[in-house]
Design a protein that fits this description.
One of its GO terms (molecular function) is DNA binding. Pfam families: AAA_25, BTAD, Trans_reg_C. One of its GO terms (biological process) is regulation of DNA-templated transcription. The chain has 26 helices and 14 strands. The longest helix is centred in the first third of the chain and has 24 residues. It folds into five domains: 86 residues, Arc Repressor Mutant, subunit A (Orthogonal Bundle), CATH 1.10.10; 146 residues, Tetratricopeptide repeat domain (Serine Threonine Protein Phosphatase 5, Tetratricopeptide repeat); 147 residues, P-loop containing nucleotide triphosphate hydrolases (Rossmann fold); 87 residues; 86 residues, Winged helix-like DNA-binding domain superfamily/Winged helix DNA-binding domain (Arc Repressor Mutant, subunit A). The C terminus is likely disordered. The strands form four sheets. A six-stranded parallel sheet has the order 6-8-9-10-7-11, sandwiched between helices. It has a three-stranded antiparallel sheet with strand order 3-5-4. A three-stranded antiparallel sheet has the order 12-14-13. It is an alpha/beta fold.
């Protein structure tokens, strides 16, 4: 029994309180009398105060489900009626009733001999189940008839799912369900036969033969009978090496593997996050309330890593799973739509992504979209408006700019002022450096003096995770002293060999130039002039260097806002006065490229977008 706000679980309180909501959820949309609730929650052993306890539990549940409303207004989800209560949410938002709807739809397609659509619907229905034995609900509710009906429905749907999957040569996909079904229905010969077929089709003939022997012994001991026709036919086909075609369903014994929601696209990183717990918790909390979150920040600060880590934390709460679309090489909206359709398992151009997603409860991550902001807005807006169960996370160096967007700004790995008084560990950027250095140079140990050197080096690199990792990777072939000299010109010299990553993750120069290429002509001209200013400056200083733009008058206030939005500047207030700042690496880029215009650093020349 779980409730989610967005993709995030809500703590429902004690067992009896959970049982009240479970009873209402099993009858979503229909009134449930107090007498029925008492029977399902306590059975015949009802305490004297049981009726009052039901009212108390409902009041608490209403507070959990609608925390922002006044007490008397919290009736949109659990309403009161004559003699009882009713859960008012959509039937499609309750897994039990959504499962029933999907199964009915699948049977219609099955009768029409549309195997592929049947398989897709049944697969979605299967992903809604965590435990076909309904162990927790059995302990919460005194309702054996209703729970037995649900178990039988799962078994029937699982039989159809496995059979259809075997028809479509998807044995590897259906094998976990086949195994679970065989364990759940040990006396069902159809299930056992189909499990043997699944084992055979996945190249496990010996396991299929052993399973038949186990079932034969069990049938003899428990029922005194021999295996039936379908099970025997499947066994003979396995022995003969024929291609055993599925009977009417199939599965097996052994402990059941958990069926996890799918993960499509690039998987989460293998690295543990350092000093990002607050960011991770904030992202997860935001997704409990909002359906569109954009993670922004300067190049190389770890936006993608944070988004993928959050998606991995939320995956098991989403029946539709997670889809990660890498947008680094995408150039326009049509291409983005095609890639997303392919990622979701459809033919490119077969339907808009919003139609493919429908009512699935899924999280989509659009990664690295700053160079195709307009295209991303077009696709994301259609999905968020049309698909009420879809949550979207975008990583970008600037926000999408739509009115319903929540923005989380990620900063470099610098200990906050609030943490400084009790921070005792090595600075997080130093920890990241040491970990990466130990990977590229196993056995490397840095003494206290060297760690102080590393701390200074990380500070020069703005504590940016990408810059710190690139520096650490240089220790594969160099000493720390040699590395310190490299950091004198990090944009040129921090380029260790890297494969399997986008180009803008392979060097600081490429990462920063990507931001520059996302600027319009006027914005780029203004940005390069900021190289003449110190790391921190006021608006008046910027206005002074922007007086003679070849692209027309510059609105300084608006331009500063745009450069802050694009993560090339940051802003803070000093006694109420806004001060603008640049990272050292960004300042270096602006300075060097400003010199390029005067012909001094041709290597940094960048074509106008």
């Amino acid at each position: 029994m779980q409730v989610h706000r967005g993709p995030v679980p809500i703590d429902l309180g004690p067992a009896k309180q959970r049982a009240v909501l479970a009873a209402l959820a099993l009858h979503v949309g229909h009134p449930v009398s107090i007498e029925s609730l008492l029977g399902m929650v306590w059975g015949t052993a009802q305490p004297v105060s049981a009726r009052q306890l039901v009212h108390t539990y409902v009041a608490r549940l209403r507070r959990l489900l609608e925390p922002d409303l006044p007490p008397r207004g919290r009736t949109n989800i659990i309403s009161s009626g004559p003699g009882g209560y009713r859960l008012m949410t959509s039937r499609e938002l309750v897994d039990v009733t959504r499962f029933e709807l999907l199964y009915r739809q699948a049977k219609q397609f099955l009768s029409a001999d549309e195997s592929q659509r049947t398989f897709e619907l049944l697969g979605e229905a299967m992903r809604l189940w965590r435990d076909p034995d309904l162990t927790e609900l059995s302990s919460l509710l005194n309702s054996p008839e209703r729970l037995d009906l649900l178990r039988r429905m799962w078994s029937d749907a699982a039989l159809d799912y496995v059979r259809t999957g075997l028809d479509l040569r998807q044995a590897a996909t259906v094998l976990p369900i086949a195994r679970r079904l065989a364990a759940t229905e040990p006396m069902n010969e159809l299930a056992q036969a189909q499990y043997m077929v699944a084992l055979e089709q996945t190249g496990r003939r010996a396991a299929a033969v052993r399973h038949f022997d186990d079932i034969r012994v069990m049938l003899k001991a428990e029922l005194g009978v021999r295996p039936g026709t379908e099970l025997s036919d499947a066994y003979r086909a396995v022995l003969a090496g024929d291609d055993p075609m599925p009977v009417r369903a199939g599965v097996a014994s052994a402990p059941a593997d958990p069926v996890r929601p799918p993960w499509r696209g690039r998987g989460p990183g293998l690295m543990q996050l350092i000093y990002r717990e607050r960011d991770l918790n904030a992202v997860i909390s935001i997704l409990a309330e909002q359906r569109l979150l954009t993670i922004t920040g300067p190049p190389g600060c770890g936006k993608s890593t944070l988004a993928l880590c959050a998606a991995a934390c939320l995956r098991d709460n989403l029946p539709g799973g997670v889809a990660v679309l890498d947008c680094a090489e995408i150039t326009h909206a049509a291409q983005l739509e095609r890639r997303l359709s392919t990622l979701l398992g459809a033919e490119p151009g077969s339907a808009a992504p919003s139609r493919l997603l429908g009512d699935q409860q899924i999280l989509i991550v659009f990664d690295d979209v700053e160079h195709v902001i307009d295209a991303c807005v077009e696709v994301v807006d259609d999905i968020v408006r049309a698909c009420r169960n879809v949550s979207v996370v975008v990583t970008s160096r600037e926000p999408l700019g739509v009115p319903y967007e929540t923005v989380w700004r990620l900063r470099p790995l610098r200990v906050s002022s609030a943490d400084e008084p009790h921070w005792t560990a090595e600075p997080p950027a130093v920890q990241l450096f040491a970990r990466r250095a130990a990977q590229v140079s196993p056995g490397l140990r840095l003494d206290s003096d060297q760690m102080r050197t590393v701390a200074g080096l990380c500070e020069q690199l703005d504590d940016l995770p990408l810059a710190v990792e690139l520096a650490a990777e240089c220790l594969a072939t160099e000493t720390l002293d040699q590395l310190v000299r490299r950091v004198d010109d990090p944009l040129r010299d921090l380029q260790p060999p890297r494969r399997g990553l986008p180009l803008h993750h392979r060097s600081l120069q490429a990462a920063l130039l990507r931001s520059l290429n996302c600027l319009e002509r006027q914005e780029r001209w203004c940005f390069l002039r900021l190289g003449a200013l110190p790391l921190t400056f006021c608006a008046a200083k910027a206005e002074a260097v922007w007086k003679s733009s070849p692209y027309g008058p510059v609105d300084s206030r608006l331009m500063l806002m745009r450069l802050v939005d694009k993560s090339l500047l940051f802003v803070r207030r000093d006694r109420g006065v806004p001060l603008y700042g640049k990272l050292r690496l960004v300042h270096r880029l602006a300075t060097d490229l400003g010199m390029t215009e005067r012909g001094k650093y041709g290597a940094y020349a960048v074509a106008a977008p």
